[in-house]
Amino acid sequence: MNSPPPQAWLNALLVLIEKFQLALLSLWHALGLTGDSHGQPAWPWARRVAGETLLIDLGLARQVGLSLCALVFAVLAITAALAWRRHRGVLLAAGALALVAAPWPSAALLLVPAAPTSFHASPTRFSVDAIALGARVYAQHCASCHGADGRGEGPLAASLAQWPPTLVSPLLARRVDGELFWHVLAGMRDRHGQPTMPAFGNVLGLREAWAVIDYMKALSAGGGAEGNWPVPLRLPEMAIRCADAAPLALSQWRGDQRVRLVAVDGMASLPFEDPRFLTVLVTPDGQPPAQVPRFRAGCAAVSSHAWQAVAAIAGQSPSRLAGTQLLADRGGWLRARGTPGRQWSDADLVCVSGPDAGAQRAPSPATDGLTALLLRMDAEPVRFVKGGFIH
Ligand code: HEC
């Protein structure tokens, strides 16, 4: 069967299904049929639509799409039949026929187990403060099994019945945030009901549980191979101060603008302003450098946690971070990591999860490395798929 390219309709279908489930959850919550779980409305059902399956099983997605069309047609036909006596018989028959003929998908394929927190949204905004808090939680409670580098080779790992998974993989990107959160608080069990991953519900507060998820994402980027972050990362939220103005959240300060974070420790020379992006200096103590000439970058992160967060994301020890740069695109995704003392080039691209990911590109000789990088970032925006839903 000839059909339009999947991107054209699959995205719309997934967004529709996500919105529908969220609307159902709000309705149930408003009617008092479901309470709260860990601070947000609890998903009351044991299953949810497996967006992640629809994404890879186009046949199933097509069945869902056609069945939805049939359903809408049947509802319209029945409504029309109520209003239009003369053709009632024909309309009802047409509606019934659509329902019978629709290729209803199998529930076993369409639905996956859900947790009460499946649809929870992280409240942290991936802030540098959350990443720093998460780093402390991780070192204290998780590194013994998952390893300080997240590769699943902590000192306790070998003694477990099941080896902990490596977090430096697309695992975190594929799981819905709310279900990662649930697994951390409620623990996990194997097929025989034996605990595999311990539950931290009695040990961690909600803020800490969300924070450790942020830290794991930063860690997975830092440990990822060059040019290939397993998890697309947002530009971390942080308070910044530009010239003498009062501090503002980086996300509020400018929309639709590329951002460059530059780690400077006073010894390293300050970068020049560049009109192609907002430059934000990150210093070890959260204090802007004492004297910043006008033509040098005039904005600096206020939080001392920014240094640690950038180090985790860049996969660099904090003591060797100076000079490292991170570039975020207009959509607010981190896309490239610059190495001190080296010109920008295509090899600095760390997030290529856009629709053309993996496609080989002919280098454009007419432009310098940074310009080519910026052009490519704009030409290949990130379409981030999480749990099957495109964000
Ligand atoms: C006693 C060892 C141990 C400790 C401590 C531990 N984990 Fe795990 N973790 C595991 C094992 C084993 C699994 C695999 C469980 C499975 O697949 O059934 C796992 C799985 C996970 C997963 C994958 C979840 C998924 O959806 O597949 C995440 C995320 C995770 N752990 C995070 C954490 C965090 C965060 C902490 C600290 C707060 C932590 N773990 C502490 C052993 C541990």
UniProtKB/TrEMBL annotation:
It holds the Pfam family Cytochrome_CBB3. Keywords: Heme, Iron, Membrane, Metal-binding, Transmembrane, Transmembrane helix. InterPro entries: Cyt_c-like_dom, Cyt_c-like_dom_sf. Gene3D superfamilies: Cytochrome c-like domain. Residues 129-220 form the Cytochrome c domain. One of its GO terms (molecular function) is metal ion binding. The keyword S-adenosyl-L-methionine does not apply. The chain crosses the membrane at residues 64-84, 91-112. SUPFAM superfamilies: Cytochrome c (SSF46626). The keyword tRNA-binding does not apply. This is Cytochrome c. It comes from Cupriavidus necator (strain ATCC 17699 / DSM 428 / KCTC 22496 / NCIMB 10442 / H16 / Stanier 337).
